[in-house]
Design a protein that fits this description.
Belongs to the transposase mutator family. Required for the transposition of the insertion element. By secondary structure, this protein is of the alpha/beta class. About 35% of the residues lie in helices and about 25% in strands. The chain has one domain: Nucleotidyltransferase, domain 5. The N terminus is likely disordered.
């Protein structure tokens, strides 16, 4: 779960966080090591969406490739960095099998299995969940392409973290450009009233 000692490329992923997030989507990717088939470590990251529509890369962690994620430890890092509450945590497999009464887990209001349909929700919440899914899938696709260019795996945790940050920054720029284009197409009166930016 920890980052390599002295890994300077991961520092932005340890920045202070905002207090509350509407949704946090967790995803994992492939293998880290010299041999993709034998590697025992995978990269997991989380992309979050605020109630105002902004997105953020919460963090990234090295986790056992075929084992259970230590959710209390992972979430404890987010709380330590300033996060206080996640309304919806979207993860592969839904709620973690560990005791959900754990103090670290109870700060997550709802757990949702990424492979199941979104439940009936208020329109704005459902719209933001859909937008967060789009952003998460775009980042995941970029990371898949990056891994394939290296034979289906990352050589080291350092290269995996660096690649994630690089692709996130590119995605942020695209999201900003898309939001600017949408704003430009709106009538003048509604552009200033927009409360949910593309990022």
């Amino acid at each position: 779960m920890s980052r390599p000692e002295g890994d300077r490329s991961t520092e932005p992923l340890a920045d202070a966080l905002c207090c509350r997030y509407l949704v946090a989507r967790f995803a994992s990717l492939g293998a880290i090591g010299d041999d993709a088939a034998a590697a025992s470590t995978a990269l997991t990251w989380a992309v979050a969406t605020h109630a105002d529509g902004h997105h953020a890369l919460l963090g990234a962690w090295c986790v056992p490739r075929d084992g259970d994620i230590a959710w209390p430890e992972l979430l404890a890092e987010l709380w330590t960095r300033g996060a206080e509450r996640i309304e919806w945590a979207v993860v592969p497999g839904g709620a973690p099998p560990a005791a959900t009464a754990d103090a670290e887990l109870t700060k997550v209001v709802h757990w949702h299995d990424a492979s199941t349909p979104v439940p009936v929700l208020p329109p704005r919440t459902k719209r933001l969940l859909a937008k967060s899914d789009d952003v998460a899938q775009r980042l995941h696709a970029a990371m898949l392409r990056a891994a394939r260019r290296q034979g289906g795996r990352f050589d080291s945790a350092e290269s995996a973290f660096a690649s994630l940050q690089r692709h996130w920054r590119r995605l942020e720029r695209r999201l900003d450009a898309e939001h600017a284009a949408r704003t430009a197409r709106r009538p003048a009166g509604t552009a200033a009233a927009s409360a949910a930016p593309g990022r």
